[in-house]
Each structure stands twice: as C-alpha cells, then as structure tokens.
Fold these 3 entries.
Entry 1:
Amino acid sequence: MVRLTKETVKNIQSIHASNKTLIHKELPERAIQFGEGNFLRAYLNWMLEKMNQQGLFNGRTVAIQPTPHGKVVPKLHKQDNLYTTILQGVENGEETQEVEVNSTISRSINPYESWEELLKLAESDSMEFIFSNTTEAGLVHMEEEFPRTSSPLSFPGKLTALLYRRFTHTNGGRGFTIIPCELVEENGSLLKSIVLRIAEDWDLSEDFKKWVDDQNTFCNTLVDRIVPGYPKENSKEWEQKLGYEDVLMAVGEPFHLFVIEADEPLEEKLPFKEAGLNVKWAEVKPYRDLKVSLLNAPHTLLFSVGFLSGLQTVKDVMEDDVVSSYVRSVIYKDILPGLSFDEKEKESFAASVLERFQNPFVKHQLTDLGLNAVQKWKSRVFPLLPKDEMIPDSIALSLASLLHYYRAQTIYEGHFMGSYQGTEYKVRDDQVVLDAFIDFWNKGEQDHGAITSLLSNENLWGRDLSPAADAVWEYFHSIRTKGARNTTAQMLKDTWALENQK
C-alpha cells in the first residue's frame, strides 16, 4: 500500500480536493513546537489546520523532538511531515467522525543531531510563537552547561538557548509568544521562572533577563482533549478506508477546550475563536476548577463503584442504568450546584462531559482511572467538600468502594495487585497510602472502629474523614454483603425518596 507523502497525495481519492490544495500551498513558518506526539498533533496542529483552511492563520510550525530517543521525527520525515487526524465521538447526542490530513508541520528537527538548525529558527523574522507539550516532567529545572555546540537535555534549557539566540540576533528586539500545553498549574509562569533560573546558571547578562521579561509573553494555559493516539487495534482497517499507509494516524475525541491566559491581546494573531474553535482567552483557574470538578472528580468517584459493579470502561458505566444514574446524580446533584461559575456555561460543560463519557470510540479503562486514586481524591474531590458539613451519600458510597478496591493480594515495591471477581489490577499510590491500606486489610475484621481509624488518618487523606465513618461503614458493609451495584441502586432509591419527602 502506498505511504502518505506529498507526492502520493494527488492520487489518493480519500483526500478532499481543498485538503490537497492546502498540503501543497507554501505557507511561512510562524511557530516552533517542542513536542511532536499524538496529543500536540491532534490538538494544537488540528486547530492550526482549521485556521489555515479558513485563511486565518496562514502559517506552519517546525516540530522539535524533545528527547534523544524520540521516534516520531524519522516517521514525519518519511511522510513529508503529513499525518491523518481521526476524531470520533458523540456530539449533541449523535456519533460523529472527522478524518483529514494535517499539513501544518513544515519540517521536523532532531536537535541532538541538528542543534544549529534549531537555533537558526530564532533568526527567522516570521517566527512569532512557541508551543510545547513535553509532559509534566518536561517543565523542570536541570543543571546543564551552556550549549555551545550541542543541545541541552531539558526543554527549558533548549528554550533558553533559543531565546538567547533571538536576543543576540535582534539586538534585544521582538521576542516570542510562548504557549506551553503541559498539564501543570500556571505552566507559563513556571516555565518563565525556570528560564530565568537557567539564565542565572549560565551567567547570562541582566539585559537578557530583562528582555525575557519585557519582550516575551509567557501564557498560562489549560488544555483538554482525549487523544488515544495511533489506532493499533484497527490500523489495517483504517488503511483500507483511507487508501494509504500512515504510521502517524492520531485518533482523538471531537471535544476540545483551550484556555489561554495572556498579558496582552492575542486574538488577532491567533484567531482560534474566529475559526469556530472552543478557545477561551481568559483566566485559567476558573476553567481549571470547572474541568477538575465536572470531569476529573466524577472520573475519580465512578471508577471504583463501576469496577466493583463488574464494569470495565467508562463507556460500560454509561451503558449501565444503575451506575450511569449514579454518575448523573454525582454531577447534577452533588457537584454542579456548588460551583461558582456562569450557570449556562457550567451546564453546557456538564452535558459535554456526559457525552465524552459515552464516546464509543474511546476505551477508558476504570483500572487506569484508579491509579494514584487517593492522591486524586485529595486534589479533585475533597476541595469540593466543605470541611464542616457531612459528605453526600454518593461520595460516602464511592469512598466505601475505594476501600474495597484498595485491598492487596500481591505486594510489590511501589505498588500492589488487587483482584476482584477474577480480574487482577494494579494499585499504585504514595507508599504511606499503600502501607495504610495493607495494614487495614491485614487487621482481620474491618469493623466500624477500623474504618473510623483509617478515615481519621490525616497523613493519608490530608484531612480527618472520621465524621463520615457511619455512612462509609454502612456502604462498606453493604458492598461486602450485597455487592456494589445493588448498594448503588439502594442508595439512589433512598436519595430519591428523601428528595420527594422535602
């Protein structure tokens, strides 16, 4: 089968005529992207493609390999930096699918082999933007030597060297707009602080540090789109549909959200909204809180209830009448009313979350959601709960199911394996968490007193949960004797009856 390249595009019938035109259109390089993985290609590059299709951005990016052992750049080279995005999901209650070839990457560079080629990008008058997605581990400070002839290992090191070349080439002229996409709170501010710290390490001038501060814009951002990536399970089927081989196919969901917090107006330079994209030029924190509250917190609450009910994926949960009703109750009854956000927008986001949970094309394993679950409870769920009030029954039920889920069968260094109804799963968390649960289950009888003691452990939970011990004990015992699904059904029935009495 023919491989996707610029030369073969004209003969591939599945590629739309307007798409073919854009692939061969010469557009200037306007951005550098540190990272060439699935997420950035199916998220940022997809957005740039949408703008280019409408003549709004009219630019391409240069993709930089972030680590020495990256495998994407050679594949991009073989495909003339082309690849296919496949977006599948549920929108407005109906299944949707969008397939197109993305041509926004003009070239791709391995800086460990071509360091000077990367630095030369700083001398281009057309370069305005720097994007990145180097994972959370990428936004860290490392002690490195000033890179005279070879690339630093860290992303901030590469960025500092690139900025220094820009500074010297322009004699302190215009810098860059830097938009990191790593899932780190205040990612732009953090990246800027690391760059300035590296400037200190390298004994760079005060003029350069002032230029970094004055002539460059570091934006804080929030990104949101599920991108499973290459469709291993049905890649051959997709190749037959497309009529070509593409080793860089990137599958994602239709939903996307990009919140960008900038100190200066950027809407005209980056007309995302004009292209119809879900981009918010706003303070990031309220949207981060909204996402954590309505997407991440329900994930954390539903995984153990669903798994102990015999389900495997989030989609399975949404197809089960009992557990899906539990999820809706959590979102609409226990979380949504307490959120300080525009009513229409939070209702819309909640509806989009339920559609995302029902996506038939994304297999979101409940056991994956269960990794580091106690830490997720501390960062996602507990901030939603007032400390001086009793926790809702739905939360107590989830907490009780978590206690059952965190039962060790086989213990290893740094994790243990659990087992439920013949399915084995990994439990990974901080060692203090693992030790506490191993001790809890080794004590023999997990009675009311044992549960109260466990819930009062502030080193474990970050707060004293013993006031919830009565409710958690009742649900814990019910799950043990009647099963999680029956317990959930009874909890919903009791809640419904109580609401009708008011």
Note: The chain has two domains: 6-281, 285-501.
Entry 2:
Amino acid sequence: MITKYSKLFDTFYSWLFTFSGFKLVVVLTAPFFLTSCVNIKKATYFNEVGEAEFEGQVESLEPVLQKNDILSISVSSLNPDAAEIFNVSNLIATQSSSSEGKTTQASGYLIDQEGFIRFPILGRLKAAGLTKKELREKITQELTSQKLLLEPIVDVRYLNYKVSVLGEVRNPSVLTIPNEKVTLLEALGLAGDLTIYAKRDNVLLIREKEGVKHTHRIDLTTDELLTSPYYYLQSNDIVYVQPNKSKVASTSRAVQWLPVIISALSFGIIAIDRL
C-alpha cells in the first residue's frame, strides 16, 4: 500500500515539475520569438534611400540665445592691456562637488531671467533672443562707438551647450557638446544608438523658443530628417525615443507570468524539502 501511494506521489511530483518547467521554458523563450517576428524595416534607418542630394538647413545652425544660457565672451584688440578689463567675466556658483560642501566657480556670463548679461563698462546688455553673431556684433559696435577699443575682436561661445536623449537608447543621458554643433543622428550615436525595441518612425523632439516649448515628430525610417530643420539640434533640445509594441507587450507578459513562476518554484522547493 505504501509503495502504491509512493508511486502516485512520484507521478504527481513528476507531472508538477514537468508542467512548471514547461511554463518556465515558455516564459523564457517567448521574448525570443516575439523579437524574431519584428519587421526588419521598422528596425532600420532610412529605408529605400538611394543615391541623392539633400540641401542642409543652414539657418538652423545659429541657435538663438535664451535665458539661463551661460556664455564665454572674450575680447581682443591691438592694445591687449586695454582689452584685459573686458575679459574679467562674472562668476557663476555651481553645484557642490566636494565632500567638504564647498562650491566650485565657473567663469561665464549668465543670461538672467530678464534676458540681460552684465558686461564690464558697457553694463547690462540684452542677449536673449539674439544669435551669437548678433550679440558679437552688438558688443563690437558698442566698444567701437564709445571709443573704448580700436578694432576689437569679440568671440562668443556657449559654456552649457547640452542636449538630452531619453527613452529607448542604450545610454540615456544629458550630452555636453563642446563644438556647439550636433545632429540628431550624432546625439543618438553618443547615447549608444537606439535599442531594438525603439520606435524609429516616431521620435519626439522638444525645443523651447522664447519660453514656449515646441514638439516635433521625426520618422527615422525615411529621408524626412535629411531635409528637416531639426536635423541639427540646438542647446537644451530634448529627444525622446518611444518603445515599440513588442517592448510593451513583452514587459506586460513578464509581469503577468512572474507570480506564476515564483509560486511554482516555491511549491517545488517545499516539495523537495519534504521528500
């Protein structure tokens, strides 16, 4: 009798472990089959783009200065001593980076909430809404008209030129761009490129102009980007890459199967322990 019941229990446990193992195999292999069915055209860039010529959007290369931008402004002239005072920029306190709680200082001209910078001798100058070229010409004209310098040379650069890349990329991050020029493709490359789960035909670009945020959708599977004014990014642009349906579906299935797997494994451990 005992032998008979032992065989029944052995059969039951064998069936239980086999069934649980089958479910586990299904859960582990399901993502593989799901991803293998993805349309290859939806996972590549610029489908069916042959040899062609695309004119760049030159006007988009010169971004407009905005509030909270930090600028480096250098001035030189035939008399270096006279120009020295114009190269003493104001100091901007930055976030503490030391264990002692001390703050570091970064040199630069901060565009305040009213859109002005404070420049030596010239005082408050309107900067927000101008391009770097326009601000450079404005400072040059002021120095010349007030006879402060002879043939001054003014250079304006960003100190906080950055773009953010978020969503389905390998390394979501805020990218600092030293040369102040970056394309959308370069930004995606710096973020590790799109993952296989990225929705390439609906990339969201968020850009702020004069305090108003504008959104634009870009399809990377066509040649739309190559002729778009959004091909070159501007400072403070945000790029968001959405996940595709495969990523959402696989995540949902994993969440649904997780309690089943944990219960089956727990029951199996208890059964083995009692044997």
Note: Residues 95 and 241 are 29 Å apart (CA to CA).
Entry 3:
Amino acid sequence: MTEKIMPAWVNFGRELRRMREQRGLTLDSLATATGYGASTISKYERAYRAPKRPFLVEAEGILGGNGDLLRRWEDAKKTESDPDWHRKVVKTEEQASDIKIWSPLIIPGLLQTEGYARCIFRDGRPHDTDEEVEKLVELRTRRLEMLRTMHNPRLLAIIAEPVIRARVGAVDVMREQLRHLLELSASRDMRILVLPADAPYHGGHSGPFRVLTSLQNTPLVEVEHASGSELLSDDRAVTRLQAVFGDLQIWALPPAASHALISEALGELR
C-alpha cells in the first residue's frame, strides 16, 4: 500500500532533514542517537508520518535547533486541525506557479506585516485569546517566505486605492505596512498594482479572490467570504473570474505609478 504525504507535516519534515544534514548526520546516526528507527525518521522527513513529542525532545537536544523544530511541530499540529477548505487552499497555493490576487477590502494576507495582521485578527476574531491571535499572525506573515523558499511563485496583486489609504491600527502600523509593500514591489517575482479610486464600476466589486495557476493542473480560483474561502474549479466560474481580473489589470495603475501612489499615501500619514 502506497503511503500518502501528510500536507500539514511537509514543512516540519523539510526542516528536520535540513537540520540533520547541516550537522552532518545520516539517518542511521540520528536513529542511534534518538533511539528511533532510521525508517521511522525518514517517514517523518518525507511527511509520511507525524512524530510524537518525545521524538521532538530527543531531536531538539541532538540537533540544537533553539526551538525552531518545536515551532514547526506546533505549526503542523495546529494545521492538522484546520478546516478541510483551508488545507485544500494551502496545498493549492504550494503547487501554484502564479498567484494573482484581487483585494478590494484589506491588504492581501500574503503581503501583510505582523502589526497589520494583528489588527485584522483582533478585530475579526474578537473571541480568540491573545495567544491564538499571535499564532495566526505568525502563520500568516511567514507564509510568503515559506512559499518563496519552497518554489517562489510569481505574484501579481491588485489592491484598491482605498485599502492603501485606509488607516488600520496606529500610524506606525500603517507606515510599516506601506513600506513593506514598497519593498515587495521592487522584487523581480512580484508586482503590486493599485486600482485607482476613480476607476469605473467593475466586476471586482463582487469581492476578493485569487487565481492560482500551476504547471501541472488547470487554474483554480479561491473566493473569500466571512467564514473562510472556497476553491472553484468549474471552468465557467474560473474563466469568468480570470476575465474580471483581466479587466482589473487594465484599469489598474502601472507598476511605477502604483509605487508612486503608495509612496504618496505613506507620506500623508500623520
């Protein structure tokens, strides 16, 4: 029987293997040191099996990860309990070669700073504890770095001008967020465009969405709503929203002008 990869444990497995190899240890030598079988550790690294905490304690002591491995383990444990729709979105995101984002309400999650994300989660999840909010902030703000480490997809984000000019949190929070956008827009694999406030009525008024394209599969669209999001694979729905995104791209300011508008909004913050 063919073993299946457990998506929640892929990042943990990669980190475990990286740390082992960085210290010049083979599977057999780590197995001897921890008391766990080499085949078992191999399954942990390939995300075919989820390790228990006792193994983590042994591995941390030997590999000396300063808590890095523990954090990956805790992230994986949390992800295991994520709703099915979220796991599907994350898996699709990790397979995408191109991600196109339309965001008419807030800065897209992949592009958020910690301070901005913290404000969004605190207001949007009023019953969560501070600890739960902080975990969500960490997961969200590390997501772009993780994607870039894994396969570095090309990203094109179109953001409505009111989102750029809206005040989320204190002035320092918004200032940091706009500076972050300016830094990201200078990246070779990312484009951030602003849709001006005076653009005519367009299909994007129906709400935020993302078009995810991979080399292996047909494009999918993630449509966001108040309780999460859903993936659309229906050809007509995908084609329609791709056309909407194309119209948005036509109306959006070009990269240089978008950069200038973000800089202008940054300069107006007081």
Note: The domain at 7-80 is CATH 1.10.260.40 (434 Repressor (Amino-terminal Domain)).
